[in-house]
User: Which sequence fits this backbone?
């Protein structure tokens, strides 16, 4: 995503951006310090994957979308500090 | 036996739902959300949108005008785009739906959107 400029977004890219937006919205509902923490973690994760994964690798992107949605649901309910720190330790073995 | 009777009676009892509280609150709430009487001036919208874009960490503030395209002119990516739109939402107390947000890719479109939004404040 980073390399392509101002192109029309594909459906799956829109889904990724929508997920990113929902993460940031959820972060807004947390306390200021948690919010900043969550935002930096979420942003780092999305950016890393946007560099790492080819945007046509739909299988992998869809997998990450599903995982992200689950994490978002957790973030909405669970104590955010604990969850956000578990976000960092995404096991690399899970990557394809 | 007693429980059957109880159920039969309860089945016929109707308690009218009167919540005087909500009757009082609703008009006040609607009024407080209406911004038609003090709608934003266009120049105000432009200034505030440009300030948000200029304060975005990756942006060179000297490049920002009301015409710039976020990705073509400022070198931002689509994730930055999402962050800028979120900052605009926060500043103007709006929630921009995904469909609209994906289309806003320049200062001009952002200004237009906010200016035409009845709830912007």
Assistant:
């Amino acid at each position: 995503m980073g390399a392509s400029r101002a192109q029309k977004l594909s459906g799956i890219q829109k889904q990724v951006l929508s997920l990113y937006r929902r993460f940031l919205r959820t972060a807004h509902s947390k306390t200021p310090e948690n919010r900043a923490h969550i935002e930096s973690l979420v942003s780092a994760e999305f950016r890393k994957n946007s560099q790492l994964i080819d945007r046509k690798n739909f299988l992998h992107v869809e997998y990450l979308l599903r995982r992200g949605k689950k994490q978002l649901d957790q973030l909405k309910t669970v104590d955010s500090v604990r969850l956000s720190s578990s976000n960092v330790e995404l096991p690399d073995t899970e990557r394809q | 036996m007693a429980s059957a009777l109880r159920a039969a009676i309860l089945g016929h009892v109707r308690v009218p739902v009167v919540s005087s509280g909500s009757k009082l609150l609703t008009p006040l709430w609607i009024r407080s959300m209406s911004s038609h009487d003090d709608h934003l001036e266009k120049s105000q919208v432009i200034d505030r949108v440009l300030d948000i874009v200029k304060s975005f960490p990756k942006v060179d503030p000297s490049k920002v005008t009301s015409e710039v395209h976020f990705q073509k002119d400022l070198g931002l990516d689509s994730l930055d785009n999402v962050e800028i739109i979120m900052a605009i939402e926060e500043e103007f107390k709006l929630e921009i739906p995904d469909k609209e947000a994906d289309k806003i890719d320049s200062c001009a479109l952002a200004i237009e959107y906010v200016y035409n939004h009845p709830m912007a404040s």
Notes: The longest helix of chain B spans residues 78-92. Residues 21-30 of chain B have pLDDT under 50 and may be disordered. Chain B touches chain A at residues 69, 71-72, 77-79, 81-83, 86, 90, 98, 101-102, 105 (CB under 8 Å). Chain B is about 55% helix and 0% strand.
